[in-house]
Amino acid sequence: MSRYDVIVVGAGSVGVPTALAMAEAGLKVAVIDKYPSPGQGENKHAIGGIRATHSDAAKILTCVRSLEIFSTWENKRGDDIEWIRGGYCFPVYRDIEENALKSLLPIQKEHGLDIDFVGPDRIQELIPGIEKEGLIGGTFSPGDGSASPLLSVNAMYRAAVSAGAEFLFKHEVKRIHLSGGKVNGVDTPAGRMEADVVVDAAGPYSPELCRSVGVDLPVVPDSHEGAITEPVKRFFEPMVVDLRPAPGSKNYYFYQNKHGQVVFCITPDPPIVGTDHRETSVFLPQVARRMLFILPRLRHIRVRRVWRGLYPMTPDGSPLVGWNRKVEGLLHATGMCGQGYMIGPGIGEVIARLVTGSSTHEDGPILAGFDPYRQFLGAEALK
Amino acid sequence: MVQKRIDDHPILSPKDEREVRFSWNGKEMTGLDGEMISSALIANDIHVFGHHEKDNSPQGIFCANGQCSQCLVLVNGRPLKACMTPLCGGMDVRSVDGLPSIPEDTDKAKPLDTPLNEVDVLIIGGGPAGLSASIELGERGVDVLLIDDKDRLGGKLVLQTHKFFGSVEDSYAGTRGYEIGKILSEKVRALESVEVWLETTAVGVFSDGIVGAVKGSEYRLIRPKKLLVATGAREKMLSFPGNTLPGVYGAGAFQTLVNRDLVKCSERVLIVGGGNVGLIAGYHAIQAGIGVVALVEALPQVGGYKVHADKLRRLGVPILTRHTVLAAHGSDKVGSVTIAGLDDSWKVVPGTERTFEVDTILIAVGLSEVNEFYLKANEWGIDVYSAGDAQEIAEASAAMFTGKIEGMRICSALGLDVGEIPAEWEEKAIILKSKPGPVREWIPPEREEGVFPIFHCTQEVPCNPCTSVCPVGAIRTENDSITGLPYMPDLSKCIGCLSCVAICPGLAATVVDYRKDAKNPTVTLPYEIWRKEVEPGTKVPVSDRDGAVLGRFPVEKVIANPKYPGTLMVQVKLPRDAAKRAVGIWVQEENREPSELYEKEPLPDSAVICRCERVTAGEIRSAIRSGVRDMNQLKALTRAGMGACGSKTCRVMIHRIFREEGIDVSEVTDRTDRPLFVEVPMGALAGERRDGIE
Hints:
The complex is a heterodimer. By secondary structure, chain A is an alpha+beta fold. Chain A folds into two domains: 3-65 and 149-219 and 316-369, FAD/NAD(P)-binding domain; 85-143 and 220-313, D-Amino Acid Oxidase, subunit A, domain 2 (D-Amino Acid Oxidase, Chain A, domain 2). Chain A has nine helices and 19 strands. In chain A, strand 14 (249-256) and strand 15 (261-268) form a beta hairpin. The termini of chain A are far apart. Chain B is of the alpha/beta class. Chain B has 18 helices and 36 strands. In chain B, the strands form eight sheets. In chain B, strands 1, 2, 3, 4, 5, 6 and 7 form a seven-stranded mixed sheet that branches. In chain B, strands 8, 9, 10, 11, 12, 13 and 24 form a seven-stranded mixed sheet that branches. In chain B, helix 2 (128-139) packs parallel to helix 9 (396-413) and helix 6 (276-287) runs parallel beside helix 7 (306-314). The longest helix of chain B has 18 residues, at 396-413. Chain B is globular. Chains A and B meet through helix 5, strand 12, helix 7 and strand 17 of A and helix 15, strand 36 and helix 17 of B. Strand 17 of chain A pairs antiparallel with strand 36 of chain B.
């Protein structure tokens, strides 16, 4: 039986880049996933948006690094991951969203993010054909963008394999194995795999995994439906986010990917709690109606496919990243609240440094913000 | 210009829709009001509808069935499927070259609530199975909603101009498919509890028990207590270089163009596949005045009914077994095809390559069930049933039976006291689904006097209308079984009425009459091609069962039985030694030699597997060789199966490449299918009514 330095549970948005960063840091890494190939859990359900323009320092700092990794990936590593720097645009029709977005600008600017509240004319340039009536303006952050979750997780997987990480697919970790109260590996149907460190990157399945060692994680999955259209000629660049609520839903967002397909998603209200992945008849009429109100031109585009993905939610909408204080060797990297795809690459490097004991000064605010033992005071402003 | 239309068809009457004007890329053209845009374009000899955004390769009609999106065109600025959009006068139709633009449109959204219909039974598909089930249910007063994506009921029966097999009492044997479609449709229309929605495409089955469908341009939700999936089959595709060229398409698409829309889509075709679908398509081609250079079949024998193959051989079509297609050639559309012989280990025999000039290659290499609705509904725990090809690929006569059976099962499940389903129904369904039996030696009667029928029927198939039609009951089948070969135990009972010649779906019955001239008996031959070729006095090449010409003989008389008007009965006087062997008339006498040029073969890796995303066999092979065993990962990496059709065509081809690469399919994770199964405009999903917007 081979012994590893680290075993990562979950070959998804977080597990794969974390394994890559650790393998490149010289660690002997194994990644185990119940699915047959990388990204087959929630990664492939992500629509692909990547932004640094969050409302708290930890996410901002992590995603600044993620953006750098995504945007330079093709140049540095050669694989096309369909990165587009299209920016994020939050058009605003009501004071309440205007005020909320404006209140975030100071912290965003403090971290050097390129974001401004712009007037309606600029919004109409960015999103040609957007509903003008009542349009106040909105924020635009040209540095944000998007990439293909499917291609990037596979590219990062190949890089991780080249760096020496081993992947075991189609194996579900039954439990974390302890020895003398410390992590000693995991039990899989194929037998035990040993390591002193286990990284929990199991997303919505983290609570189940951690219960095997008596850890109760404040992670509750809920589900969101997404969809993709046929490809058409590019007619807008940014990710468009409408924060307004409507009966049955909160915000919704959409963008046009590199192929010209419009990809979109909505946040149901109340949340649909649980791990049910099954598509419902409710989603399409609900989201289509809202999208047409903001961009009537979309009535002519044809929707191709729908799916449903899980958001592993925490009480305050921020991830749980850090060592478990009771179980030595258990490192949480979960509760990404639907942002695992954009947080993953940045946090992977932070985790690698945490494991090798080489955390930097810059990692401090990230680890503090994502501390699993923090007080869950209020929800994140943008959630 | 002269339109490519079929004005003179031996079975079908020409269209009488009025002509309308439309424009194609700015050029004025005429088409028929209400016909599908694809047919109007092909009638104007337009075969290239656009160019794919990935490699700029030309695209045209492929499935002709609303499933694939290869025929996308811009209609008044909106991207739409040409094969599902009826032509109206004044339409501005344009090619889609690269990605289409969606029109600029700032009209405010006018969404309405999506109507939800609650029904006892929803039947998806108005073909033979769905219609038969509707009849069983409707006759018992069950509330049924029958939906179909086409503008008329009948499903693929609409395309079938040949007479059906089976038995007269159970499956309308001897009646032509499109006529059966009409009979069943009329029965359904007369049932009060059956509501029919045409031009309604089911697009998804959801976990809340609701089926999503687009009715016209409206999105509708339907919650059935019981769901019957009678969605039929789709055609399998072959992987060869050039397989995406316009002019390569399925036999079903061909029949749609030729038999439903009466468009002469081709001058010369090659058919790949010797099952019933390919054989019948060849026959339909000849009836439409389209030359068939050959039919190739990879197996050592054709898989379809021998009588169908014989019909084709008798018309002069070479059937080349142990042959395959190597490549299609052409720049913008098919110009030629290269075929080659295969050895017993399925390898091409070097030196056997031949290239024929053709404009069309029909692929008829089998069907697969359209079962995505059934599988999803089953996964969601909906009480779902399937019938016809959606349940198991077989003949339409079997589909009528399984439709009846499933209709009855649904009645029982709804609590109606319908009693037991008759055991003989199940037996008949099994017989109708059965494959043809072995070919037996043909032994003609020895008698050479009087008048009597000769049956050139040497293979057991489920078919016995000759026994029903004989007015003196003199014809029987062996053991009185529907699959037994027909014979007349006492030849002296024959009264020479010719009804068996008229009804035989295999055109395999003749009547030899020695009464007037025993040395030169009169033989009555069945004939379903143009009447003008067999006018009395014309010397026609008479062929035997295998297509060998026995000689040219003058036509004495042409008769038609008013009940079976499509089958002409041509009477020819033949020398006694040839009389019993004669069964058909050669039509296709033109010599179809291979063209001189031999095209250099592109690498087989350039064959396109996923046509929607233009993913080649080479790309898929290299992903498999790099270790990919999950079709979802394969999709993520190559986009194979990510296109409009949702892997309807490429899935089975990808499975085949896995096998070719020596991978055990049990190691391979199949792809995940999700709704929507057909793309839907977002305006419809939002509840906008197109007609109400303007």
